[in-house]
Write a structure and sequence with these properties.
The protein is of the alpha/beta class and 530 residues long. It folds into three domains: 1-133, no CATH class; 134-210, Roll (SH3 type barrels), CATH 2.30.30; 221-430 and 492-525, TIM Barrel (Alpha-Beta Barrel), CATH 3.20.20. The chain has an eight-stranded parallel barrel with strand order 18-19-22-23-24-25-26-32, surrounded by five helices. It is elongated.
């Protein structure tokens, strides 16, 4: 006999008798997280919204402020901000931040259905349905009075009873049963033989996705980083550029962050910019956290909205005063906990750069599971150029090996292109290598520019052997009870890497660093003017 037992709805939804809780369904699936009900207003937890619906809702837990970044503006709200109905847009309960469903809907391409238990005299549990899928769906009609059950079994408890003619949304359908969503907002199972007419329904989204316009150089990028650690170092530009071919962007390391309050050392120089422009070069000044970053904790620096505002305002003043064409952000070595704060800084900086009409480029490691918190896809949406630093495959303090093997570079490119358009992707290559010293159980290394490495090979009579799988020459010598090894970067290895940039139709190439290279390297690294 079919069961007539009434299901425990609270148990089914994972809700206690707390009337302030609301079950959340995402595309018909019950979520572990719970929403909040406060009178007529219903709320979603910001952590859940960020993970599943819209990651641009950023909660500043230090200054207790909600920040939402659009392409050309930034919206702020806190617990005092009221919506059009006079209710708070943001509330906090037991340390958790909640956003009103209406606020989330205003900025997100979703449909919502709300069932507020506070409207009923009897115990009715609140539910929030969020749908991100706008595909056509099937609407069924009950052919006779029937029960919607917890499971696909006539002995399963009854969630709600339907009358003949009641309609419902068919979420899934198997041979004998269908999982449905009723008009009263319950999810459960109904026998297929109880389903009469079925119609296909289509809802149209009226949401307009924000358009993140990008500023392009208008040709393939050929960027060189110019390491500048003093004002005097700016004077070397002409000499260093004399060896190059086809370079159209120079990125001097001018703005070195120094503290957690947005302070930095500036080596910016107007004469340098004027000279670069006379040479046909754009200047994208570098902002970094390591050259003077002993006292910089990126998790602290980028966590405060007021500090991000201050730093961005200062940088944009530098841009205006110096006549810069762009900024190049190079923030390295951050912990995963600082990832959301750093990405928020990039969003906000992108708004300022877009308004000022300058290019924003950001340097990134080759994608790996352990650095996914850099949020490659979001960066790819908001920045103008995404630069892959396709080097340091083996690094100081690690095992001996190539700085940039051909497979490491290609994997870095293909993995990046899963998240970032090729039209925005620039591949950065090394004008340096490492001489490794292995003695006993100890491994050390020293970095040498290509010019210096060639001299070291000549001075030490090192015989080089081509390693096809790495796309590099390798050599080793025994010296002073130690083995010294080198995986060489030179014209052939760099030429292979440049071929990858063409193969994947990337936006261009970048090189670390200017002055490390012999003039002959530019025969293979030159990007034709287009």
């Amino acid at each position: 006999m079919p069961s007539k037992n009434q299901a425990d709805i609270g148990e089914l939804l994972g809700i206690t008798d707390d009337a302030s809780q609301a079950a959340i369904y995402l595309n018909g699936e019950l979520q572990e997280e719970k929403g909040l009900v406060d009178g007529e207003q219903m709320y979603l937890p910001v952590t859940w919204v960020d993970e599943y619906v819209n990651e641009k809702f950023y909660w500043d837990d230090v200054e207790k402020m909600l920040v939402y970044t659009l392409p050309d503006s930034i919206v702020y709200a806190d617990k005092r901000t009221l919506g059009s109905n006079g209710q708070p847009l943001v509330v906090e309960k037991e340390g958790q931040i909640y956003l009103s469903v209406g606020l989330v809907s205003n900025y997100t391409n979703i449909r919502t259905e709300l069932y507020n238990g506070n409207y009923y005299d009897s115990v009715v549990y609140s539910r929030i349905y969020v749908d991100t899928d706008w595909s056509p769906w099937q609407q069924g009609t009950a052919s006779k009075n029937t029960a919607v059950r917890v499971d696909s079994d006539i002995k399963s408890d009854v969630i709600v009873n339907l009358s003949k003619g009641d309609t419902f949304r068919i979420e899934e359908q198997s041979t004998d049963w269908s999982r449905v969503r009723t008009e009263s907002g319950y999810m459960g199972y109904i026998q297929n033989k109880r389903i009469g007419q079925v119609e296909t329904k289509q809802e149209t989204s009226l949401f307009i996705e924000p358009e993140y316009t990008s500023i392009s150089l208008g040709k393939e990028v050929s960027l060189v980083w110019h390491q500048v650690t003093s004002m005097e170092a700016n004077s070397a530009l002409s000499t260093l550029m004399a060896n190059t071919q086809g370079v159209n962007v120079v990125a001097p390391t001018w703005f070195a962050l120094t503290d957690n309050d947005g302070g930095y050392v500036s080596y910016g120089n107007q004469n340098y910019v004027n000279l670069a422009h006379d040479m046909g070069l754009q200047v994208w000044a570098v902002v970094d956290n390591f050259n003077q970053g002993t006292n910089v904790d990126s998790a602290v620096l980028f966590a405060k909205t007021s500090v991000r505002k201050k730093l961005i305002a200062s940088l944009m003043e530098e841009v205006q005063n110096l006549g810069l064409d762009g900024l190049n952000l190079d923030i390295e070595g951050i912990k995963s906990s600082a990832g959301p704060q750093y990405v928020q800084f990039i969003r906000e900086l992108s708004v300022a750069c877009r308004k000022a009409g300058i290019i924003l480029s950001v340097d990134n490691y080759v994608p790996m599971p352990y650095n996914s918190f850099y949020n490659w896809a979001e960066q790819g949406r908001v920045v103008d150029y995404y630069i892959i630093m396709a080097y340091d495959e083996h690094y100081a303090g690690g095992e001996a090996g190539s700085v940039s093997s051909i497979s490491y570079v290609e994997n870095g490119i293909t993995d990046t292109l899963k998240y970032v358009p090729a039209s925005k992707t620039v591949c950065a290559l090394p004008f340096y290598t490492r001489v490794w010293t292995e003695s006993g159980n100890e491994t050390s290394s020293s970095a040498l520019g290509i010019q210096g490495a060639k001299q070291w090979i000549e001075d030490n009579h090192v015989e080089l052997y081509w390693q096809e799988e790495l796309g590099q020459y390798y050599g080793s010598i025994q010296k002073d009870d130690a083995v010294k090894e080198i995986w060489m970067e030179e014209e052939t290895s760099l030429g292979l890497k440049m071929n990858l940039i063409s193969k994947y139709q990337l936006a261009g190439a970048a090189f670390w660093k200017l002055g490390f290279e012999p003039a002959s390297v530019w025969d293979v690294c030159k990007i034709s003017d287009k």
